[in-house]
């Protein structure tokens, strides 16, 4: 009864990025609510990681966090290939 519907929630904007410069690579995201940073995450990765891997890691970390945030979330990313990969996934309940 007292549950919020998505339209009652303040939406969060989450910005993701992954980068590789020389032999260093990393992933990060920043979540904002009403222009205030409420969550940041970052991870330094192996030099062997490809840019696709670091970009999709940032997206994955964002999705994992968003699933626990109990908020409507808009994910902003410049990784077209990462977003296309996510778009191709389907989720099922495991039933037949």
TrEMBL record:
InterPro entries: RNaseH-like_sf, RNaseH_sf. GO terms for molecular function: nucleic acid binding. Gene3D superfamilies: Ribonuclease H-like superfamily/Ribonuclease H. It comes from the Eukaryota. This is RNase H type-1 domain-containing protein. It comes from Araneus ventricosus (Orbweaver spider).
């Amino acid at each position: 009864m007292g549950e919020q519907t998505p339209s009652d929630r303040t939406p969060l904007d989450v910005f993701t990025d992954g980068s590789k410069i020389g032999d260093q690579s990393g992933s990060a995201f920043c979540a904002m609510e009403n222009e205030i940073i409420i969550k940041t995450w970052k991870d330094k990765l192996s030099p062997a990681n490809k840019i696709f891997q670091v970009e999709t890691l940032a997206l994955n970390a964002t999705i994992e966090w968003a699933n626990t945030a109990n908020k409507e979330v808009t994910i902003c990313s410049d990784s077209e290939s990462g977003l296309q990969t996510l778009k191709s996934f389907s989720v099922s309940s495991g039933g037949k």
